[in-house]
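Table S5 (text form). Sequence records supplied for joint modeling of the two-component complex.
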Amino acid sequence: MTRVYDLAVIGAGPAGVAGALEASLAGLDVVVIDAAPRPGGQYHRHLPDSFHALRPGALHHGLERFMRQWEALRSRAEILLGHRVWAVERTGGDAAGGTAGATVTVRCLAGDREERPRAVRARALLIATGAHDRPLPFPGWDLPGVLTAGGAQALLKGSLVVAGRRVVVSGTGPFLLPVAAGLARAGADVRGVYEAGGRFGLARHPLLAAGKAAEAAGYAAVLARHRVPYRGRHAVVAAHGEDTLTHVTVARLDADWRPVATRTVECDTLACGYGFVPQLELPVQLGCATRRDADGTPVVAVDAGRRTSVPGVYAAGETTGVGGAELAEAEGRLAGRTVAADRGLRVPPLPALARRVDRLAAFARALHEAYPVRPGWRDWLRDDTLVCRCEEVPLSAVREARRLGATDARSVKLLARPGMGWCQGRMCGYAVACLAGEDPAAPRRPIAQPVRLGDLAGLEHPLRKDDRDDP
Amino acid sequence: MPDVVVIGAGVVGAACAHYAARAGLDVVVLDRGPVAGGTTGAGEGNVLVSDKEPGPELDLAVLSAGLWRELAGLGGFEYEPKGGLVVAEDDEVLAALTALAAGQGVEHTVVDAGRLTDYEPHLAPGFAGGVFYPQDAQVQPMLAAATLLREGGRGAGRGTLSLRTGVTVTGFLRDGERVTGVRTDRGDIPAGAVVNAAGTWGGEVAALAGVHLPILPRRGFILVTEPLDEPLVLHKVYTAAYVTNVASDSAGLETSAVVEGTPSGPVLIGASRERVGFDRTVSIPVLERLARQAVELFPALAARRVIRAYCGFRPYCPDHLPVIGEDPRAPGLYHACGHEGAGIGLAPATGHLIAQALTGARPGLDLDPFRPDRFDPDRSGTGTPAKEG
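The corresponding structure-token record, covering 860 residues in total, follows.
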């Protein structure tokens, strides 16, 4: 018999680990699955081992806490790192709400080069798959040297690579600050932080208004010490270079983000980020209801206990609304406790935790409202600007598709191919939806990760008989 | 007032509008969504004569294959006359396949087991032989539909063709029994005639006019691989089981892999068939079966990655024939829907025949097997009997 866990948690970031720990402390048999070789998710994974040792304190107080939870979890739960989930299925039970006998099968690919398929079964599922970067296209964004903000964080893992680089950070949202501070601390020459949205300087950064004074002051102190200029209502609107990035055009923007005046800044690295896109393909596969977050982004709809619309399936962290690591962790804890209670275990109520989630969620909403993406970014594009880098689709092709009668992102994709390539629209989906004149829809990706036909066919692994026989 | 309102901007509606405008009629095409947003946007782009049994659908397919060749001259969409290779698992199937090909009377070559790899170097060993159909082709269906719409009204002596997306038809204007236009959420549009090209939703549109068309969704999944550097699959390749599945009446799941390469590099793998309503929930067992059958045809595919899968809903009629022609129960309303999985292939012939009917010309094919009232119990006694499953 294949083992059936009480709870499978997808994602070993702040939400997943906290949820898994609560559930296993309550007595559930838990398995945690993550694609990366290390735990931490987008938020903690990219901090280098040395970072914390160099500068303990406000900048990354969360990391120590996370590592304590991780250590506690490791002795209590099954951990499957390096497992990429390509599909989840729910079998048995009934859609009307009965959970008795229902199980979820998580289909993963384990390993890197020598990947092998593996199916994990559980009676409940917690989706904590987080979010990925949301870039906006602009001329030259396909040049080597142009990174997403999250990609730049990843660079920090080897600070030798970063030291000496001339870096520009641009985009919108509070994430730019830790990126810029981290790069500066690691020895990069940060030529400027250009925040498209914020009209105010660092002194009136919205983080301060939301009781995050210590965190914001920490970033500000690092930027000040390294003499990094911070400019609101500015953004990089073009990147230049022959084979690799040599300089960028920085524009002062009007309230709608249309360039008002430009100048040139020399740099060899550009880190760009315009917020995050929650990774929804797994909840969408399961048929979980979604809703629109404050900024129009589709997120998983959950109740106060983090239950999705599908019985036995829970969600926490950025998939239910981008709000940062602290909120994710609190939501994860709440979810883990709800799963345990729903499975009949005695879990004492913790009203303070629910209040904490509410408070942090209100803060996240305020940040979303403080950092909207404004429509003027479309003016940064030229006819030949690639909207989709995988399939090399220029803006002109998107416009031609609209002339031909494409009125939404899907039909633009069908006529002009943006989003058809390797990343399956993860990078360009937001921009294509905007250019098609609609709010981005929840992604429909029946195959969440590339999977070899041989593995899908079950040829190399004569399929696990138990996995096929539904209870 | 337009001469014709076409409901549906899929490939069939686009072809009807295209040929009607070419015949000098002023045409307005309406769609509640975008161009090619329904089943056209979820297909493979099959233009097949090989999978049709002798009869009215094959006649339609042969006419259509020729028209696609001509329409390819418009440019704007990929058209690949790559040919189709049907392979047989054993001698018995090969004999049946060869007999079918002889009866079809279309251009074909019987291929011995030893010659199969001349056509498809990566084909798995062990097949008994096959039949090659040079007329089988592939179009990029979404761009084809969009191009037919764009080009229909261009040229001297033609009518106008305008596309209005985001318009939902809510009813029909009537003068007695006669249909004299459509009601939409954006106002009424009187017209000389109305063409129902709503595909899988054609039955719902017909119901707005008070007439019954038994069109049901038959779901199909398609797998798309990563782009391949070297073409691994040169033609459309499928096993003889596909022909049986296409003609089957079963509501249950049937799969038979149809494998082909595309100019942009990925390999497309169809085709599953199941009647489960408009349910889009992913079925891993279906994807698994398609993958297994594809690898059985081309073992080298085992190491290639699937990066995408999607599903669509074929407009299924109980006798597997489309509905083409004026509805005697609602004069002025013409139907062009219910093509099941062959809508891309059959679109030009359908549009051509509809345009002939609209202009009072003598149709190039006998429309009786496709007539809209053939499913009514009191009218089913005449004409061609329903095709055998």
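Note: The longest strand of chain B covers residues 305-316.
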